[in-house]
Design brief:
This protein is an alpha+beta fold and 96 residues long. It is built from 4 helices and 3 strands, in the order αββααβα.
Length: 96
């Protein structure tokens, strides 16, 4: 059963950030079939909010996604990777 991690994470992440429209969530292939990397890209300030102090928010997000994999017996190892949009990316998007 294929999980839609964006559908799981968006309702949790969106209230935590200032610009939820800029959140990009993609599933990347892992090194093994059981490994899944979820890339979460956002604005710089929002990335800091999603990681939290000492990684508290990031760890909670990992736990939520991990519970979803246990619920459907896929037993996948979930890795969350947080990145920020760079200023160059914003300029390209604005057509500058």
């Amino acid at each position: 059963m294929e999980r839609d991690y964006a559908a799981i994470l968006h309702p949790i992440i969106d209230p935590l950030v200032h610009n939820p429209e800029a959140i990009l969530i993609r599933e990347l292939p892992g090194s093994t079939k059981r490994d899944v990397t979820i890339l979460i890209v956002s604005d710089d300030d929002d990335t800091a909010r999603l990681i939290g102090k000492r990684g508290a928010v990031a760890n909670a997000l990992r736990e939520v996604v991990g519970i979803a994999t246990k619920a459907d017996d896929t037993n996948q190892h979930i890795h969350l990777k947080f990145e920020s949009f760079s200023d160059e990316d914003k300029e390209e998007d604005d057509g500058k």
